[in-house]
Specification:
Layout lengths: L9 H14 L17 E12 L3 E13 L5 E16 L9 E4 L5 E4 L6 E19 L3 E12 L2 E14 L4 E14 L21 E15 L4 E14 L7 E5 L6 E6 L5 E14 L4 E11 L4 E13 L2 E12 L8 E3 L16 E13 L7 E16 L19 E2 L6 E12 L1
Parallel strand pairs: 12-18
Antiparallel strand pairs: 1-2, 1-22, 2-3, 3-6, 4-5, 6-7, 7-8, 8-9, 9-10, 10-11, 11-14, 12-13, 14-15, 15-16, 16-17, 17-19, 19-20, 20-21, 20-22
Length: 431
C-alpha cells in the first residue's frame, strides 16, 4: 500500500529527495528557508587528482559557496582551477623506425621506433559558475545559471535555465530546461587546414563554436523507499568542432608504415541525444543507486553506461562502493590511418576518444566527521580501465577478422588502452 507523504518517516523522505537531486538531476533541489537559527551558508570544497598512466596529470581544486535566503531562495558560486600537464597522443601511428613529425601547433618532434606520437603540454583552466534557485509558490521552482571558463586556447560562456513542478502530493516532479554556450577556440600556432600536411593555416585566429541544449525529465516516488526517474536531453553543436592538435597518419598500403601526417577534420555540426533512467532505493539503513544511460549522435557514436552505487550507513560514517560499465562504438569517420594514394575522405580523425572501446570503473568513497569539528569529509578513489579496443574502419591485417554480419573488418587497435586513477578529497559544512 502506498502511504501518504505526510506519514512517511522524515529521515527516509529527506534522504530520498537528497539522493534524487544528486543522481537523477531532473528537479530543482529543494532548499530550506533560512531563519534566524538555521545556517545561512553552505561550503563545499574538493580537490581532484587525475592520472592517466604515462600520459596526463590533472589537479583540480573546486570551491563552492551557497547563500541561503528566507523564503527558500539560494545563490551559489563555484570556482574551479584545472592544472594539466603531460603528453596527449596526436593520433599519429607508431612506426617501425624513427619519425620526425611537425605537429599542427608548429612544433617538430622526433619519435622513437614503436613509440606513440604525443604532444607535450601544460595548461591551466579557470572557471566560474553562478546559479540562483528560487521557489515559485509551494510546488514549483526555478534555477538560473551562468558559466565562464578560460584556458590558453579555449574560452566558454554559457547560460542555463531549469523549471520544476511537483504534483500528485509531491510524488511526481516534472522538469524542463535549456542552455546556451558560446565558445571560442584559438589554437596555439594558428588554425590548421583540415587534411593537409604542409602546415597550411586558415588565417582565422578565433574559431566560434555554439552549443544549444534542452532537457526534460520526470521523477516519481513509487513507495516510501523507492524513487525512480527518467531524463532526456538533446544538444546541437555547430562551428569549429575539430581538435586542432590531432593528426591522422598516411601509411604505405603494403607495409602500413606512416609516410606523413594530416591535420584531422571533423564535421561542423553535431547533434547529441541521451536518455537516462535512474533508481534510488532506501533500505532499512543503506541506499542503493542504479542508473542506465543510452547515448547517440549523428557522428555514429553509440554508448551504453550502467552505474551502480551502494551506500553503507555506518552511524557517523558511510562507505560507498561504485561500479560503472561503459561501452562505445566508433564515430563514422574514425580511422587508424589513411592509405597513401587513396582519395581523401570528407572527414577523418584518429582521436582515440572517438574509437570503439569498453571501460570498467571501480571505486570506493568513505565519508566521516572529525571529532569536535563541524562538517563532513569524504575520500573517493577510483580506477578506470579500458579494454577491447578495436578499429572497425581500417583494413584488416594478418590477424584481421571480418566484422559482424560480414561488415567492415575488425582490427586490433595498436594504441595502448587507457589506465586512469583518480583521488578526490572533499569537505562540506554549513554555517
Amino acid at each position: 500500500m502506498q502511504l501518504d507523504p505526510a506519514s512517511r518517516p522524515p529521515s527516509v523522505l529527506s534522504r530520498l529527495r537528497a539522493a534524487a537531486c544528486v543522481l537523477l538531476a531532473v528537479g530543482v533541489p529543494a532548499v530550506a528557508a533560512a531563519d534566524e537559527t538555521s545556517p545561512r551558508y553552505q561550503l563545499d570544497a574538493s580537490t581532484l587528482l587525475y592520472r592517466e598512466a604515462g600520459r596526463v596529470t590533472v589537479i583540480e581544486p573546486v570551491a563552492r559557496i551557497t547563500r541561503l535566503f528566507e523564503g527558500g531562495g539560494s545563490l551559489g558560486a563555484e570556482f574551479t582551477l584545472d592544472v594539466m600537464t603531460g603528453a596527449s597522443p596526436t593520433g599519429g601511428r607508431p612506426a617501425g623506425g624513427i619519425q620526425t613529425i611537425t605537429t599542427p601547433s608548429g612544433n617538430t618532434q622526433t619519435v622513437s621506433a614503436g613509440e606513440v606520437p604525443t604532444n607535450p603540454f601544460r595548461d591551466e583552466r579557470g572557471a566560474v559558475d553562478v546559479d540562483w534557485q528560487q521557489p515559485i509558490g509551494t510546488r514549483a521552482g526555478a534555477a538560473t545559471g551562468a558559466h565562464f571558463s578560460l584556458e590558453t586556447d579555449y574560452q566558454s560562456i554559457g547560460v542555463s535555465e531549469k523549471l520544476s513542478l511537483e504534483t500528485m502530493q509531491r510524488l511526481l516532479t516534472l522538469t524542463v530546461g535549456g542552455g546556451y554556450n558560446r565558445d571560442d577556440v584559438f589554437p596555439v600556432g594558428g588554425t590548421p587546414v583540415g587534411l593537409t600536411s604542409n602546415g597550411e593555416r586558415t588565417g582565422v585566429d578565433r574559431n566560434a563554436k555554439e552549443v544549444l541544449s534542452v532537457m526534460a525529465g520526470v521523477s516519481r516516488v513509487l513507495t516510501r523507499r523507492w524513487l525512480v526517474g527518467i531524463n532526456a536531453s538533446r544538444s546541437k553543436e555547430s562551428g569549429y568542432l575539430t581538435e586542432p592538435y590531432k593528426v591522422v597518419s598516411v601509411v604505405d598500403p603494403a607495409t602500413q608504415e606512416p609516410l606523413t601526417h594530416l591535420s584531422e577534420l571533423r564535421p561542423s555540426t553535431r547533434q547529441r541525444t541521451d536518455l537516462l533512467a535512474s533508481s534510488v532505493y532506501h533500505l532499512s539503513r543503506d541506499i542503493l543507486y542504479l542508473s542506465y544511460r543510452y547515448y547517440w549522435d549523428d557522428w555514429g557514436l553509440r554508448s551504453h553506461t550502467v552505474d551502480l552505487k551502494y551506500r553503507f550507513e555506518l552511524g557517523a560514517t558511510f562507505l560507498q562502493p561504485h561500479v560503472r560499465a561503459y561501452a562505445q562504438t566508433a564515430a563514422d569517420f574514425y580511422t587508424l590511418s589513411l592509405a597513401n594514394g587513396a582519395p581523401l575522405p570528407a572527414f577523418a580523425s584518429s582521436d582515440q576518444r572517438l574509437a570503439h572501446f569498453n571501460s570498467l570503473t571501480g571505486g570506493l568513497t568513505y565519508g566521516f566527521r572529525l571529532p569536535g569539528h563541524a562538517g563532513e569529509l569524504t575520500v573517493r578513489a577510483e580506477y578506470i580501465g579500458q579494454f577491447d579496443r578495436l578499429n572497425l574502419n581500417a583494413p584488416a591485417g594478418e590477424d584481421g577478422e571480418e566484422g559482424e554480419d560480414g561488415g567492415a573488418p575488425v582490427t586490433p587497435d595498436p594504441f595502448s588502452p587507457l589506465s586512469i586513477g583518480t583521488l578526490t578529497l572533499s569537505y562540506s559544512r554549513s554555517f
